[in-house]
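Inverse folding, one chain.
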């Protein structure tokens, strides 16, 4: 089987390439001694993943290069508004690339068991407020409500649990027509702490509730109009499992989906 480096995305930034290649090989668990019966399926997955990864890397990179080239060539003649627009496009696309690379590396670290939770005591309300603060600028007229059930002190890796909550909030904003209405519940049930994030979007199509937690899975075709790699929910699941918990989803009777992250701590 070909090592991924021999067909790697040419446009990835040089310093991130070796790390990304290693991460992708880890994802596919490439090893020299592999049962021949698995080879074909691995090869298919390999191609599928490379195609998805190359597309996701190349699209923002092409935008960044395009915007910066125009800026460089025409900066003397462009008015300040257009110059700003070009820089803003480059910056937004660079953020997108950053999220994508971070997701791939996070997933690989989680898969390899290299992420060991660094637990500290934290109030769930503080953790959730912090996550909301980070995405407030993306709400665009939407709202977030929190339903607290008192102070809940947990013993968790706050960075990892925050990351999971941020993925859920990101999805609520991405997959709901604006203005989004997000509701967050948190508390303890059956000795497990939980954080549930619900939205007023279209919900998850019937019988596809499990599938969305698999890597690189995106549902409706229209999803592709929204940037994403299909890794957010699998990262959430890996983080929940690291805390001996889980993540599930259910559609709400009034519409929209509710994702519930449970964890020990
Ligand atoms: N709140 C939601 N409402 C409706 N569909 C959702 C919601 N959250 C996730 N999905 C569906 O589940 C799929 C997988 O979500 P996931 O977060 O894993 O990946 P993504 O958002 O496509 O990409 P990213 O890696 O950037 O998070 C989405 O593409 C979408 O089809
Ligand atoms: Mg997502």
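Residues assigned per position:
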């Amino acid at each position: 089987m070909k090592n991924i480096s021999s067909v790697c995305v040419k446009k990835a930034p040089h310093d991130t390439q070796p790390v990304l290649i290693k991460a992708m090989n880890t994802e596919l668990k490439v090893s020299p001694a592999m049962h021949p019966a698995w080879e074909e399926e691995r090869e298919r997955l390999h191609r599928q993943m490379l195609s998805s990864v190359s597309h996701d890397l190349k699209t923002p990179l092409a935008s960044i290069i395009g915007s910066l080239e125009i800026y460089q060539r025409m900066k003397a003649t462009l008015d300040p508004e257009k110059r700003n627009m070009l820089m803003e496009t480059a910056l937004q696309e660079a953020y997108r690339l950053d999220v994508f690379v971070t997701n791939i590396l996070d997933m690989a670290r989680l898969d390899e068991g290299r992420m060991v939770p660094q637990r500290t005591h934290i109030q769930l309300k503080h953790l959730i407020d912090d996550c909301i603060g980070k995405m407030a600028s993306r709400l665009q007229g939407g709202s977030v409500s929190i339903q607290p059930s008192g102070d809940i002190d947990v013993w968790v890796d706050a960075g990892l649990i925050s990351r999971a909550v941020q993925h859920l909030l990101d999805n609520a904003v991405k997959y709901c027509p604006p203005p989004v209405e997000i509701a967050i519940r948190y508390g303890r049930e059956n000795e497990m702490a939980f954080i549930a994030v619900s939205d007023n979007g279209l919900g998850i199509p019937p019988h596809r509730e499990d599938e969305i937690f698999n890597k690189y899975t995106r549902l409706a075709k229209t999803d592709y109009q929204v940037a994403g790699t299909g890794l957010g929910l699998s990262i959430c699941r890996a983080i929940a499992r690291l805390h001996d918990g889980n993540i599930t989803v259910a559609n709400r009777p009034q519409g929209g989906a509710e994702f519930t992250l449970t964890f020990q701590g």
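The pocket of magnesium ion (ligand 2) is lined by residues 167, 170-171, 228, 232 (CB under 6 Å). The helical segments are 17-28, 36-74, 80-112, 124-135, 158-175, 232-242.
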